[in-house]
Write a structure and sequence with these properties.
This protein is mainly alpha-helical. The protein has a domain of 79 residues. A two-stranded antiparallel sheet has the order 1-2.
Length: 164
């Protein structure tokens, strides 16, 4: 696991001098700050972030509606369950991994029902992952459980997901 930390609500103590913030001056100016009162701490922020990103819901603001950051609750799709006929056409995807590259054509505007099937043989041309990792054949429904189980500081450099 990572051993270094980014600065969050804790900072290095500094004297009041050119190019420094003067820790004691800041504490006296912002004496009612929850940071200086010890209410907001590094550990409290980590726990709060984890509760929001893994377990929390958001109302999405006025545009996007509510959703949860929990991948398992979102119902991640399985590649095998993607609707649409193989090859696309009439607005269907070319496959679960590849959008239909065709265009509705002249005079059809952006009407997706006018999109023809994708080119012959295009379905078999999806790329595979380069480097390490499970690659592009890993379905989101298979990887979601693994992703949802991670917590902050749970990532190791050079170690891939548990899902293969």
């Amino acid at each position: 696991m990572p051993s270094h930390n980014q600065k969050t609500v804790d900072s290095l103590t500094s004297l009041s001098a050119k190019g420094t913030s003067g820790t004691e001056n800041l504490k006296s100016i912002f004496s009612t700050s929850p940071i200086h009162a010890g209410i907001i701490t590094r550990e409290e922020r980590l726990q709060y972030f984890q509760s929001l990103i893994s377990n929390g819901d958001t109302d999405g603001g006025h545009t996007f509606g509510s959703f949860t950051f929990n991948y398992l609750q979102n119902g991640a799709p399985a590649y095998d369950d993607v609707d649409g006929k193989v090859g696309g056409g009439a607005g269907d995807p070319h496959s679960a991994k590849i959008p239909n590259p065709a265009s509705p054509g002249a005079g059809n505007g952006i009407d997706p029902t006018k999109i023809p099937e994708g080119p012959e043989g295009f379905l078999n041309s999806h790329p595979t992952q380069f480097g390490s990792g499970p690659g592009s054949d890993l379905s989101p429904s298979d990887s979601s459980n693994d992703i949802s189980s991670h917590t902050l500081r749970d990532y190791d450099m050079g170690i891939r997901s548990k899902t293969t």
